[in-house]
Specification:
With about 240 residues, the protein is an alpha+beta fold. Strand 4 and strand 5 form a beta hairpin. The strands form two sheets. It has a four-stranded antiparallel beta sheet with strand order 3-2-5-4. It has a two-stranded antiparallel ribbon with strand order 1-6. It is about 60% helix and about 15% strand. Helix 4 crosses helix 9. The chain starts with a helix and ends with a helix.
Length: about 240
């Protein structure tokens, strides 16, 4: 009996340890075990108070409360989903099969320069001057001069208006639409509502292409995890 009781004490201690670690991580984004003794004791007292409060409410005010039971059930499922996704490890065979099925592609990437001005008429004036420059290098040099002299975009001004190479799906929707049919060296404007008007110079286009298995692996792992989770969920509805 003593051995059994001792074993129960250990299991109970492990369970509570998991609780307090989870509580501190969830509320404070911190590691309970990394805290000093005084802080640990303060956190333990805090969690015990919250646990007592929750139990009192659960067995009192919320006893037989429909909203409570619905929220509890949804939360249980949500926690289970997160733990399943975190722990499921797809096999290489699963990933290879998904790669063949999905045939993933890499979207185009764009490296752009931009000038931001307050008024569209100012943008039109700059565009008209750039249109007179036929040599591509000279046009780019002229664009950079306008960046330095008139652009209100302080973030990109220090890099001569150059923005980081960006996936198509991460671009502003108006810029993305305006880029259709354009080529490197083209210049166009986009009205950005309250910000003003942007003049865009296309520095570089990296075309779309089929992704390699290695390039797709992170996305394939996420898809495999989600597929496995859906299969587990479907088992409950058969």
């Amino acid at each position: 009996m003593n051995k059994i009781f001792f074993g129960l004490l250990i299991l109970g201690g492990i369970a509570f340890s998991n609780e307090i670690n989870s509580y501190v991580a969830s509320k404070y984004g911190a590691d309970f075990e990394a805290q000093d003794h005084q802080t640990k004791q303060k956190l333990l007292n805090e969690y015990n108070s919250i646990k007592t409060m929750a139990k009192t409410i659960e067995t009192g005010v919320l006893k037989n409360d429909g909203d409570y039971f619905v929220a509890k059930n949804l939360l249980i499922i949500d926690i289970w989903k997160k733990k399943f996704i975190a722990t499921y490890k797809p096999t290489n065979e699963e990933l290879q099969e998904l790669y063949r099925e999905q045939n993933p592609i890499l979207l185009p990437k764009y490296e752009l320069r931009n000038i931001l001005v307050n008024y569209e008429k100012n943008a039109d004036m700059i565009l008209s001057k750039l249109d007179l420059v036929k040599d591509n290098k000279a046009k780019k040099d002229s664009f950079i001069k306008f960046v330095r002299s008139v652009s209100n975009d302080t973030a990109s001004k220090n890099s001569d208006g150059l923005l980081p190479l960006t996936d198509e799906n991460r671009l502003n929707s108006q810029i993305k639409e305006a880029l259709k049919g354009k080529k490197e060296g083209d210049v166009f404007k986009v009205n950005m509502q309250e910000l003003g008007t942007q003049i865009i110079y296309i520095e570089k286009i990296v075309p779309s292409r089929q992704a390699t298995f290695e390039e797709s692996q992170d996305a394939l792992v996420n898809l495999a995890k989600q597929n496995a989770l859906n299969k587990e969920i479907n088992k409950f509805f058969k």
